[in-house]
Fold this sequence. Notes:
The complex is a heterodimer of chains A (163) and B (501). Chain A is of the alpha+beta class and 163 residues long. Chain A has helices at residues 2-25, 31-36, 38-41, 138-162, and strands at 45-59, 62-68, 73-79, 94-95, 98-109, 115-127, 130-131. Chain A is built from four helices and seven strands; from the N terminus they run αααβββββββα. Chain B has a two-stranded antiparallel sheet. Chain B is mainly alpha-helical. The relative contact order of chain B is 0.11.
Amino acid sequence: xxxxxxxxxxxxxxxxxxxxxxxxxxxxxxxxxxxxxxxxxxxxxxxxxxxxxxxxxxxxxxxxxxxxxxxxxxxxxxxxxxxxxxxxxxxxxxxxxxxxxxxxxxxxxxxxxxxxxxxxxxxxxxxxxxxxxxxxxxxxxxxxxxxxxxxxxxxxxxxxxxx
Amino acid sequence: xxxxxxxxxxxxxxxxxxxxxxxxxxxxxxxxxxxxxxxxxxxxxxxxxxxxxxxxxxxxxxxxxxxxxxxxxxxxxxxxxxxxxxxxxxxxxxxxxxxxxxxxxxxxxxxxxxxxxxxxxxxxxxxxxxxxxxxxxxxxxxxxxxxxxxxxxxxxxxxxxxxxxxxxxxxxxxxxxxxxxxxxxxxxxxxxxxxxxxxxxxxxxxxxxxxxxxxxxxxxxxxxxxxxxxxxxxxxxxxxxxxxxxxxxxxxxxxxxxxxxxxxxxxxxxxxxxxxxxxxxxxxxxxxxxxxxxxxxxxxxxxxxxxxxxxxxxxxxxxxxxxxxxxxxxxxxxxxxxxxxxxxxxxxxxxxxxxxxxxxxxxxxxxxxxxxxxxxxxxxxxxxxxxxxxxxxxxxxxxxxxxxxxxxxxxxxxxxxxxxxxxxxxxxxxxxxxxxxxxxxxxxxxxxxxxxxxxxxxxxxxxxxxxxxxxxxxxxxxxxxxxxxxxxxxxxxxxxxxxxx
Lengths: 163, 501
């Protein structure tokens, strides 16, 4: 009985250690790390985090979402059901939602013509993006006005010179 | 004895330079209109500021240097080489004002990269760049690819004699039509027709890919401009990888090949001379070279185990090869993958493709397939002379629009320019190695810059040394103008300093 008890304790300890290890491995990996060491991560489950940028390209039941972690953007292939949480995508007028992707990394995806991509298993929105309201840059406006005044003056002078 | 240039020379150069600058300034109206219509007010202001500065500069030059005299050959060449430098400085202003380029030098780098249809970029955070600035980046490529002088000839220059001298100075030796201004306008006609067709094809493909219609057509026009003009800029940081679409990549490959073919070839095919597709030395050399180099690349990629299956080899290997050979520089892989996954042999194949380049009198860069063909036939002629009896008369001919008998002058000219290109590739490589980059990477990036390609193995970044940025700017400029007008400008500067009255 004592032996069974000690084996049980051992199992708990090993499980705790493994889960601790898995947790530390499950930190987001940067795009640079993934691209530079693509062979090592090929086929493995990775966690990747970044801003959704550009278009969400729905292809039948799936979709391509490009996620940029400030170094590079990586294409994420996911089930179309996962995109429902994405509201904003990054562009000039908006910052995109920051998402965490857990999925299988492919150095040269056989399904997608050799693309370096991630096939998402889950998507979690970390923070929401937002629309920018562009404010007129007064400095630029003033520069433009002064320059156009100068241009007008030069133009008039050249007309006078011609006469 | 070197003669000091006269005031008349400087006035003539200044006057025509002013006209070209006014032409360039007016092209800034396109992004201004787009910016205002899309509500991108600050980007539109960036262009209004640049427009005003450019117009002022152009107006002052044309008034101070007013002349009715036609250009001499020397003046024409200098106008061309100077106008590319001044255009770079002016076109970089709106880029720098956007805040997406860290330094003004970086913005100049991108402006020169656009004008010379290279496609290397130092832009930061392209994914958040405005439509207005993005249009300008691609428009730069379109203007540069067609030829800045072509624009001036089409709209602003009246005299045909001076026009011809500038046209030749911009590395366009072939006239499609007897009149050089008509030739310039025909080049526009070809490009506009392809622009409409290409944009439609890419726009529709974009929508089918799942893009929003506005984005699909905006990307379509941008990708066409930078594809047909073999520049390689794209509206997103992932370049062509952003689209994840085989159809899109095939359309782009067709556009890149069309852009790399001689305008004279287009003119003949459009005129019904379809046999030219098979008979022309340039198309033959281009396709043979692509096939041979693809074979070499396949061996290299297979040895490294980079891709398995036909489709990945086509979409990654073949696409990059066509992109390199046509000197476009579109990429469906990340820059680092070249070095980390492709292996030396595949890299050598792609460096060779970039070095050879596309057709002469096209928007492509590099040594050019016509010169490769001429050198090949000259070599063949020399070998025949050795093998055949001494009394035998050896005549070598090739087909380029018409049957041409090879003469020593053609062979000498082709060899000299080829030598100059090889020297330029070597120069950038040495500078790269000097700054501590590995040899193969330095050679790759240097060839890409000098042949106006735009493929990158990762050296081109905003953090690279300023000296290397300046080297690549110089290489892009000299490579695009094919040396003659650059050498003339250097000679002119020497004459100003050392010449005698």
